[in-house]
Amino acid sequence: MTVLLQTHQMGVSFGGVHAVKAVDFTLNEGELRCLIGPNGAGKSTFFKMLSGQVTPTRGECRYRDRVISGKRPWEIARLGIGIKTQVPSVFEGLSVAENLWLAAANKMDKAAVAGEVDRVLEDIGLSDRQNDILSEMAHGQRQWVELGMILISRPQLVLLDEPAAGMTHHEVRKTAALIQRINQQSTVVVVEHDMDFIGMIAQQVTVFNQGEVLAEGTFSQVTQDARVKEAYLGNLEIKHA
């Protein structure tokens, strides 16, 4: 397996608080990795360091053996990394197709844009809604449009922060299927709290606790780990995919 992204003793402190201590993390090409853990465990902060939203105060992150820690989100995106944060970054007053057109316009030859927009509309299941204005669409549909805006540049790595947050059960299931399709062409990292959703998509899971990696393994392995149950899951009933 080829290593795509790797951190070495990467961490960050805010004042005297070590939000993330010193994490060694390896992601191979083609993986779909989920990051989980209790509130304050450090997973979201770790994700923000990967995506350039937070600058590490120690250690480093390498993408294809190139140091990216400390770079800004737009610099990281230019390397072929698609980033979706918790807050949707879409143009609410424009249509689905117009949002995709704008995402594609600066990244490819104009002659190819129309075909790519059609491809992504099919991928996200919104071909029949392409002329709808985003402000009039459901929350889940707007989230799918943002995923489409990431997909249109064919990123090698996709970083997703709580992509299923606030969705209905039907939307969650469709989002899970969409992320699995994305994983057919891109390596994916997902931060998420919804364990049922994690069970639908997870290949490998990294569990954070108190700013450190507590456990790693398959979904079944980590949900049956006594340390994970004590720190995070408790008596939560887990649905195994």
UniProtKB/TrEMBL annotation:
It comes from the Bacteria. PROSITE patterns: ABC_TRANSPORTER_2. GO terms for molecular function: ATP binding; ATP hydrolysis activity. Keywords: ATP-binding, Nucleotide-binding, Transport. SUPFAM superfamilies: P-loop containing nucleoside triphosphate hydrolases. Pfam families: ABC_tran (PF00005), BCA_ABC_TP_C (PF12399). GO terms for cellular component: plasma membrane. Residues 5-235 form the ABC transporter domain. InterPro entries: AAA+_ATPase (IPR003593), ABC_AA/LPS_Transport (IPR051120), ABC_transporter-like_ATP-bd (IPR003439), BCA_ABC_TP_C (IPR032823), P-loop_NTPase (IPR027417). Belongs to the ABC transporter superfamily. Drug exporter-2 (TC 3.A.1.117) family. This is ABC transporter ATP-binding protein. It comes from Pantoea coffeiphila.
